[in-house]
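ping. complex inputs:
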Amino acid sequence: MLKDSFSRVIDYLRLSITDRCNLRCVYCMPAEGIVPFSHSDILSYEEIIRIVEIAASLGVRKVRLTGGEPLTRRDVTFLVSELKKIKGIEDLSMTTNGMLLEEYAERLSRAGLDRVNISIDTFKPERFRQITRTGDLNLVLRGLRAAEDAGLKPVKINMVPVRGINDDEIIDFARLTMTSGCHVRFIECMPSGALDFWDQGMYISTDELKTLIETLGPLTPVRLRKHGPSKYYRIKGAEGVIGFISALTHHFCEDCNRLRLTADGKLRPCLFSETEIDLRAAIRNDAPDSEIERLLRLSIQVKPKGHTIGQAGIAMAHSASELMPCASGKKRPMSQIGG
Ligand code: SAM
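pong. complex structure:
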């Protein structure tokens, strides 16, 4: 079992397999896009598989593929099938924007993917295009159905509520859990990604979301799994559940069980910290497994207790850089960390 300095069990690895994305969501990426990593910057599938094998031998049990958009990377089903074979990996999932899911769902399922999270911030096609700058909601909804048909269940929908953009749909998203088995997770918009997007006015806290959703009925806490950032609730009689990922207002740091590996091979112990450990350099300098193992353990030992952004700070901040002074210059965009 891998434990960090604060006795948290670390058993979850989020793998960003590309920084490229076929969407340009307003809160995630600057309008002008980003300078993508070059092909040689990105870990090869063989390198990723080796890292996951070593991580699994240390105690990692859950792996999630993310990005950028993971389905834009060529032969992603090959990677899924190879990761699925690794001893110790019990749960293999993917976070996707769903644009290519109709084409891939069946193949992903056959390759061994267990579940998908699909990011959908609105059910209005025109608004969807505005938020994603390039997306097609119909394609995503067809992808969602294909995922369900392929057994990639439960499908979890990730929604980032933003005041003045999609806050009038929060109730509709919550109601979806009453009419389908989908899990709907509301993610507090974070001051990362498109840094000039975040400000106090557009930000909606989990407490505000809950109060709004409780107009549909009382929310009863549901314990779905031992660790993880989502706190889950059910509206009485609903088949699906509602999750809240409150990175800012209710730190989930004490339950954090994860490490992130960026597409260019940097281990990040915390989304909000700039600490990175360079696994790619080690691998490309022919490091033996014992050295990769040491670096994995090191990243767990330096995992911070938590981030320090508090409620009072959020209430006063006008911009992302006020909240996170390091959030300028060298800070990576979300798509290059892996959301
Ligand atoms: N392309 C995939 C997708 O769209 O799901 C995976 C990568 S995306 C960066 C992963 C998740 O991060 C999405 O659910 C997205 O909404 C979320 N995300 C991106 N920027 C965010 C921000 N600033 N605050 C909160 N969530 C964000």
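DSSP finds twelve helices and twelve strands in the chain.
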